[in-house]
Write a structure and sequence with these properties.
With about 270 residues, the protein is an alpha/beta fold. Helices cover about 55% and strands about 15% of the residues. It has an 8-stranded mixed beta sheet with strand order 3-2-1-4-5-6-7-8, with helices on both faces. Strand 7, helix 5 and strand 8 form a beta-alpha-beta unit. Helix 6 packs across helix 11 and helix 7 crosses helix 8. The two termini are about 35 Å apart. The mean pLDDT is about 95.
Length: about 270
């Protein structure tokens, strides 16, 4: 499979790194990147072909790894160059119907929402395919995305907003909670380095336990919570402040904003 990336930013670079780690031939990977400094960096780091622009797309799959605000311009430039390539877009918020319209009705489009842990091969990506996409097309797209983590397929593109709110934005929620743990640690007298280590190890250990255990997170929480103990006191404080409810509300707010952005960005060419 020959793959052309449009955009060599963090997510594009993560996918290229994952493909190479999984045995992809560097000769089958190329990048279109207008920034000269980034072009040289990618050539040196990955040993792949990097171009400022191309007149002919010699590939099976083209992956659009640009910012949402740039996608209309990129699509306009590519519209007359497509033949039978699978177009995979990781531009957040852009509906497949809008991208198809910008590509003059092209239908072999797969929309993907990855998240930033893909940079360390621990991501999760949601994929949605337009009706014209074949089973083979799906397998090829999944091969690319599974190189940086796990994948799920969505039947309803509308669920992409919920996935974005939960998983696309999710790492920020985790980092926010880590910040709170570290702040608590420093307030209780630990230095910043030790506080960070304790927070990270506690979080990663708890996630590993939840991943390997047959018990649901609620059961694991109860196993840590002794009657009248320290954990119960902390959790009661959180319950009294409706922390869980506020988290759910925040994620639903992110979902709503994702829907709004999709509408706004889709009006680019109107």
């Amino acid at each position: 499979m020959k793959i052309t990336f449009v955009g060599g930013g963090n997510m594009g670079s993560a996918l290229i790194s994952g493909l190479i780690r999984n045995g992809a031939d560097r000769k089958d990977i190329s990048v279109i990147e207008p920034d000269p400094e980034r072009r040289e960096k990618m050539k040196a780091e990955y040993g792949i072909s990097v171009f400022e622009s191309v007149d002919l797309l010699d590939c099976d799959l083209i992956l659009l790894a640009v910012k949402p605000q740039q996608l209309f311009g990129v699509a306009s430039a590519l519209a007359d160059k497509l033949s039978s390539q699978i177009v995979v877009s990781i531009a957040a918020g852009i509906l497949t119907s809008d991208l198809s319209r910008w590509l003059k009705g092209y239908g072999r489009i797969i929309r993907v929402m990855p998240n930033t842990p893909a940079q360390v091969m621990k991501g999760i990506s949601a994929l949605y395919a337009m009706p014209q996409v074949s089973a083979q097309d799906r397998r090829m797209a999944e091969e690319v995305l599974s190189s940086v983590g796990s994948t799920i397929w969505l039947i309803d593109e509308g669920k992409m907003d919920a996935f974005t709110a939960l998983c696309g934005s999710g790492p920020a929620y985790v980092f926010y909670f880590l910040e709170a743990l570290i702040e608590a640690g420093t307030e209780m007298g630990f230095d910043a380095i030790d506080a960070k280590k304790m927070a990270l190890e506690t979080f990663s250990g708890a996630v590993a336990l939840a991943s390997e255990s047959q018990d649901e997170p609620g059961i694991l929480r109860k196993k840590v919570t002794s009657k009248g103990g320290t954990t119960e006191r902390a959790l009661l404080e959180m319950e009294n402040s409706s922390v869980k409810e506020h988290v759910v509300q925040a994620i639903r707010a992110a979902e709503e904003r994702s829907k709004e952005l999709g509408i706004e960005l889709g009006k680019t060419s109107c």
